[in-house]
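Table S2 (continued). Query chain:
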Amino acid sequence: MATLTWLGHACWLIQTGEHSILLDPYLDSSPAASCKAADIRADYVLVSHGHYDHCLEAAAVANSNNATLIANFEIATWFETKHGVKNTIAMNLGGSVATKFGRVTMTIAWHSSILPDGSYGGAPAGFILQLNEGKRIYFACDTAFFSDMRLIAEPKLDLAVLPIGDLYTMGIDDSLAATKLLQPKFVAPSHYNTWPPIAQDAQAWAQRVSQETSAQPRVLQPGESFSL
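Corresponding output:
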């Protein structure tokens, strides 16, 4: 069984077997976070792109837990040289890597990427996690809707996590179009309600998911979990 906890904004904690994976850590200064970086225990830290609201606590969590940070080449190198992160896996779009919890594939994301100090952040990405226990999870991360999401639908997705905040990413309408292409068993919203410009009614989104797609919506409050 895999358990996913939404920590607020676009930050997720995935617990599978004996392993914990933290995605896009933005905690200590996030107005939506349900915990602080010091509260996190993780074996892996995944960073989708360089924007501060997706990586601000990545070094703190990686260094305090001796965790492995997985990101694109530019971001992984930046955390090595600027923040002394010792364990990194640098990859790029389309690549996959075996881990102790399963397999990570880096997918395309239509967005931008620059690191907190202004350094180039490489290509933004999403992630597919193929867990040892058989579950397949897609984190679209920060992205526009793109038609090649239909290629991610096979083999079957147990869960898709999609941004719905609009303005900086796709909004509700495009997330529904993405859900129709991806055809996951479950779909969860992310990257919304942190600040007024990305405020959304997640319950209204969930109602539309139920009415217009075959997926089952899962709307969490920061700090809440659900299991696959």
